[in-house]
């Protein structure tokens, strides 16, 4: 039974990521760096803790930009409501706002 619940949880997460991907891809307010960043964070998402927690330096290297560009992109994603960031510990925790994506996507 536990694996069935986990499989359902994973399927819901996968659907949420698909919804997120469709929404952010067509949001003209996003900079190219922000768009690339949210997709990288989606791939780094850890299902067991429900967030991604890469360092800014790691993200900058992955996207071939400066850490300042990553901070600006994170701020933009936060301002637009696509991402929440928990800065309470040593590493930032990047938390996608799934409920927002499901609500927006369900109207299409």
Question: Could you give a short description of this structure?
Answer:
This protein is 62% helix and 7% strand. The chain is mainly alpha-helical and 108 residues long.
Explain the layout of strands and helices.
Elements: H1 2-25, H2 32-44, H3 56-63, H4 67-79, E1 83-86, E2 93-96, H5 98-106
Antiparallel strand pairs: 1-2
Helix pairs in contact: 1-2, 1-5, 2-4, 3-4
Describe the structure using short key phrases.
62% helix; 108 residues; 2 strands; disordered N terminus; disordered C terminus; single chain; Arc Repressor Mutant, subunit A; mainly alpha
Describe this structure in words.
This protein is mostly helical and 108 residues long. The protein has one domain: Orthogonal Bundle (Arc Repressor Mutant, subunit A). The protein contains five helices and two strands; from the N terminus they run ααααββα. Strands 1-2 form a two-stranded antiparallel ribbon. Strand 1 and strand 2 form a beta hairpin. The N terminus and C terminus are likely disordered.
Q: How many independent structural domains?
A: 1
Strand order of the largest sheet: 1-2
Give a quick account of the main beta sheet: strands, pairing sense, barrel closure.
2 strands, antiparallel
Could you state the CATH homologous superfamily? Winged helix-like DNA-binding domain superfamily/Winged helix DNA-binding domain
Query: How much of the sequence is in beta strands?
Result: 5-15%
Number of helices: 5
> What structural class do you assign from the helix and strand content?
mainly alpha
């Amino acid at each position: 039974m536990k694996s069935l619940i986990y499989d359902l949880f994973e399927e819901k997460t996968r659907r949420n990521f698909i919804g997120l991907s469709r929404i952010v891809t067509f949001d003209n307010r996003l900079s190219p760096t922000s768009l690339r960043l949210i997709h990288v964070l989606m791939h780094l998402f850890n299902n067991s803790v429900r967030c991604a927690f890469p360092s800014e330096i790691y993200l900058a290297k992955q996207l071939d930009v400066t850490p300042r560009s990553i901070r600006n992109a994170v701020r933009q994603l936060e301002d637009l409501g696509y991402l929440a960031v928990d800065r309470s510990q040593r590493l930032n925790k990047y938390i996608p706002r799934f409920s927002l994506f499901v609500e927006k996507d369900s109207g299409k």
